[in-house]
């Protein structure tokens, strides 16, 4: 595969976008937006009651804000806000961003996350945004971190600072989706560290962690555990898509 540095790829995408007509990422209808009105209405206007902590769909008529798993075995993060399920056809949008290098989609995800955050009445706004970091080799291979690309415009939309270098991976980890539940726990255990320049910003603060997809939530749990060890008062996840439980 032809490797291009991020800046060259962004320039190339910009040139291609100015030559080629824009089409909807889901139905390919030619029009001005990345996602047409019909697909927005069809795939993003459904109402789902979700657990406030892990964002999994709750059964109809549930009387608690948290699901049974979060009540019995609470994760280290306090809230999760998502835009949609990681299921067809919305999952295509994530794949096109990550593997088709359509960085403009990160801006669309940020706009949709902004709307979900501002609509959510159960959580206050955080003081700082962080992005789930990629390992060095995956970052080199892909040329960009999709979580960073979503967090940057989201920071502007919400008027909340984004610390691009706040979180680091201490080692390379395997792709969580390829592992069994037990192996996932071991895979990310102690895999993240906070940049020491951010210590004072995290202590006592409400931090939001941005990512594209939340599968089991183990990576976000591990990051929240680490942030709370450094004194974070509260951790919220801002994630575009949440994998429904029967998919993992
Ligand atoms: Zn469409
Ligand atoms: Zn839950």
Q: Give the number of domains.
A: 1
Order the strands across the largest sheet as they lie in space: 1-6-5-2
The helix fraction, in percent, is: 25-40%
**Which ligands does the model contain, each kind named once?**
zinc ion
- Estimated share of beta-strand residues: 5-15%
Task: Give Rg in angstroms.
Answer: 18 Å
CATH architecture term = 3-Layer(aba) Sandwich
Largest sheet, in brief, is: 4 strands, parallel
DSSP summary: helix tally: 10
> Would you tell me the structural class of the helices and strands?
alpha/beta
The ordered H/E elements are HHHEHHEHHEHEHEHE
CATH T-level fold name = Rossmann fold
Task: Indicate the CATH class.
Answer: Alpha Beta
Low-pLDDT segments, ≥5 res: none
User: What spatial form do the alpha-carbon principal axes imply?
Assistant: globular
Distance between the termini: 30 Å
Q: Roughly what is the average pLDDT, rounded to an integer?
A: 89
Number of strands: 6
Q: What's the helix and strand layout?
A:
Elements: H1 6-19, H2 37-44, H3 68-72, E1 79-85, H4 90-99, H5 104-119, E2 128-131, H6 136-142, H7 146-158, E3 167-169, H8 181-188, E4 192-194, H9 199-202, E5 206-214, H10 218-229, E6 234-242
Helix pairs in contact: 5-7
Bound molecules: zinc ion (2 copies).
Description:
The chain has 248 residues and is an alpha/beta fold. It has a single domain, classed as Rossmann fold (3-Layer(aba) Sandwich). The strands form two sheets. It has a four-stranded parallel sheet. Strands 3-4 form a two-stranded antiparallel ribbon. Helix 5 packs across helix 7. The mean pLDDT is 89. It binds zinc ion (2 copies). The site of one zinc ion has 7 residues, from helix 2.
